[in-house]
Amino acid sequence: xxxxxxxxxxxxxxxxxxxxxxxxxxxxxxxxxxxxxxxxxxxxxxxxxxxxxxxxxxxxxxxxxxxxxxxxxxxxxx
Length: 78
Fold this sequence. Notes:
The protein has 78 residues and is of the alpha+beta class. It is built from 1 helix and 2 strands; from the N terminus they run ββα. It has one helix at residues 69-77, and strands spanning 45-49, 52-56.
């Protein structure tokens, strides 16, 4: 695969698939590196729990899409 450093899929992981999707999942960003970013290109939801705003990324597949690698790297270097 061209640019294989940008994508790998670990089908033997006990949590695979971590999202319901019919697309291949990029496991490179298993834990989203954008979680700490207040603004990110994904689709997080924000929950209020005990007066605190919590970012919930469980429904977001943005970091798992192979074509988003370059954009994630851009966000991380800004």
